[in-house]
Amino acid sequence: MAGNEWINGYLEAILDSQAQGIEETQQKPQTSVALRDGEGDFFNPTKYFVEEVVSGVDETDLHRTWLKVVATRNSRERNSRLENMCWRIWHLTRKKKQLEWEDAQRVANRRLEREQGRRDATEDLYEDLSEGEKVDGAGEIIPPETPRIQLQRNSSSVDIWSDDKKENRLYVVLISLHGLVRGENMELGCDSDTGGQVKYVVELARALARMPGVYRVDLFTRQICSSEVDWSYAEPTEMLTTSSADDCDGDETGESSGAYIIRIPFGPRDKYLPKEILWPYIQEFVDGALAHILNMSKVLGEQIGKGKPVWPYVIHGHYADAGDSAALLSGALNVPMVLTGHSLGRNKLEQLLKQGRQSKEDINSTYKIKRRIEAEELSLDAAELVITSTRQEIDEQWGLYDGFDVKLEKVLRARARRGVNCHGRYMPRMAVIPPGMDFTNVVVQEDTLDGDGELASLVGGVEGSSPKAVPTIWSDVMRFFTNPHKPMILALSRPDPKKNITTLLKAFGECRHLRELANLTLIMGNRDDIDELPSGNASVLTTALKLIDKYDLYGSVAYPKHHKQSDVPDIYRLAANTKGVFINPALVEPFGLTLIEAAAHGLPMVATKNGGPVDILQALHNGLLVDPHDQEAIANALLKLVSEKNLWNECRINGWKNIHLFSWPEHCRTYLTRVASCRMRHPQWQTDADEMAAQEDECSLNDSLKDVQDMSLRLSVDGDKPSWNASLDPPNSNDPVKQIMSRMKQQPEAKSKPEVQQGKKQGDNVGSRFPVLRRRERLIVLAADCYDEEGAVDVKSMVTMIQNIVKAVRSDTKMAKNSGFALSTSMPLDELISFFKSAKIQVSDFDTLICSSGSEVYYPGAEEGKLLPDPDYSSHIDYRWGNEGLKNTVWKLMNTTAVGGEARNKGSPSLVEEDMASSNEHCVAYLIKDRSKVMRIDDLRQKLRLRGLRCHPMYCRNSTRLQIVPLLASRSQALRYLFVRWRLNVANMYVVVGEHGDTDYEELISGTHKTVIVKGLVTLGSDALLRSTDLRDDIVPSESPFIGFLKADSPVNEITDILKQLSKAGG
Fold it and tell me: Might you give the EC number(s) for this enzyme (predicted)?
């Protein structure tokens, strides 16, 4: 609060209002403050103001009101306004203290929950160790303190990425969804979504494409066809320039090699949307990106894969929205995922709550913060590796998340190295890899007279000499200075309160020696009119201008209104030519890219000691760290570097000598080394088998452009499929199709599932029935959760729905042609078959059955009523699945924790019992005894994450069952599996659901498939037990051309009409 001039003015106004008894009030010890004197009618808030307000209130929101107060001439009206203002301050203070108390409680509760989770996990793990291991590993189980993550470029324990990796020819996928992304003339700063992240991901894509062993890099973002933005953002594909022909290795170039921006349309096609509005359309992006990746894997397979698909080496999500997308894509393709958070939701929420200006509800409404945090937690569930810029990001930001615990991560990593079972517990690895920089345009100049000559030419220092061509921005800056030859102190940031520009100005203004020795240049973004800027930015600029006037800094401070991105290197060069210093005084700096840019241009630095600059200084040794709140320390550090030329030269040389540590080649080498140490995964099935068998009848490339609604590079995803009925036994015994079918003979016999076809006749009949799904042009998925109060199937509603949908499809000749049906349910296979028998429905009417909430996939066999399990699905979803460890933990949690996460009393009856009939290898099922007392899904998932367990829990069958399936399994992900496995066109999938359903119901609605919501079909669902805060509007779009509505009693012709209407959507 020190130095805020308006507070002094406030106190003066109180004194000017001739309030009586102030001294008496200050001297008398009172337990409460009287706002009015008993004898008069005037305002007397001094004691309260000094003791409570000045020391505890952020005055920013009240500043404008205060300006109006001091402008009031009428004494009585002025006093009244002062009183009202003080009451406002009092209420703000009370609210802030309440929020601080709530925050302290929340932090304490989280600490207790984390400690309990870690204790439960380590107790379970400890039981597995032998007596010798318990003694040897006792120090590992609960480490005494958080391990220090060292900033290391190379690790001796891993194979460093080098030029001998050329033969790898990798395909890398990067995702950055929000903002305006293009390769040239980036509009950085045009809005809050188009900033450093956009520049980083574009440069990362370019740099990775130059690395040996990397063949192609795709950077996915959103396609925007809006008149509000430039036409270039509507281009489906943009090739990023990689390197000159001299730099390219002939073996690495190819028709599809290099780096590309791939723009996928999702959400409203004609609008530019801020990132907070994109959440409901994430699954649309996933389907579009998946279509492109499938196409590209096939194309690259033909070019460099010897006919076999080339799958992505890694899928890397940037920020929460892209992390959510990358998790779904990684699960569908079974390839590793990497995450970079850039800015984290929990950290932002903590900061906003501490400010006390907004409630949690207001913060969530503005920033969609809860949806963002959940996306970050889901990203942690799926990520193999999380890349951060600094250690501070790991310890102080990711440490806030349920899905990451530094201590537990160390324990699990130690067990994994020793080959000890972790019972499905997992923590992602964190790697500190600072962002790279492009130094190709930076010219390292030794101390010469060139810089002085340019400056002399600019200011006319040599009579008769011809002026040199100097950058325009130099003139724009130098015109502010009385003596432009002084060393320049340079600060470059947007006018944000967190950047602490006002403290820098005060430090400069109050240090006479510093003012005499140096000039100060403030590059504070671009502006035309301060009043048109956001309130926070306008406030900073207004305060800065007032401080310049207060300290009479005219002629010593430059603050140009405009600059271009291309001017920034010239600004650094100007400061270096004057032997100046770069300063970043931010209160907290997550990384500090400008510090590296400045060092590359030969500028020593003074930087905040909070955040990334600590790591940068340790690497570069080119400056000093300061407390950003200490004006005197800032002034002394600047004075030291400006006045001590030997120190200045030493810092300058150190910066140049060590700057290669932050180059893009070094960043990419470390990046690829870290990724190579991940658990490499890729689809196990031979997806090219069907292509080889169907070459003669495959549709042409141009005819299949419609299949993906222009969501990719306009490549085929298979159009019409050939018939498999012509031959039961392909003539070539080495046929890949036959190899796949032979694997089905090796499936272990399921004793509890007598209807599943087994035995030696299985292989003979597979040829005519099993591949029928991949020949479908259209798939109708029935996923309505029709159950009664007790969780039993509502046979009447279910049968009526199935019959009406089938009749509607078959009533239209065009639609009936080559359409198939699938049933997706939480019922186990045995119960589903019993339902079919009671309803007299033939199993063969369906091309596939998705059972037990997506944990099993079956296809009809040749014999009537027989079913074949998918031979690859079980291994596909097995990732991070810990069946036995999960059972023990869930049983304990469900019977000791109630609604809201509160502990239940000891001796209370159990709330769940294991449902053996519904359980299988990849589904742990429980019967719910009292649904009113069980915890919600978000609470359960949080507690499982705290214990290192990654899975997909859900309530189903009207909250009478709890089913927990693997992380990669769900009913919606099973549909994507069919898309990838059999190249089904997701745009031609029609998913039929009710208005309510199981807690995975929301996941079935969004996407590029068509969704039919049948109103009145499902009256009882499990939705209420999903989460404590309703986030449906952030998951399901309120309006979408892909969603249609029917009534439960709609006639067949209306069903047909809505299916036809939806078939035209997205075309």
Answer: 2.4.1.14
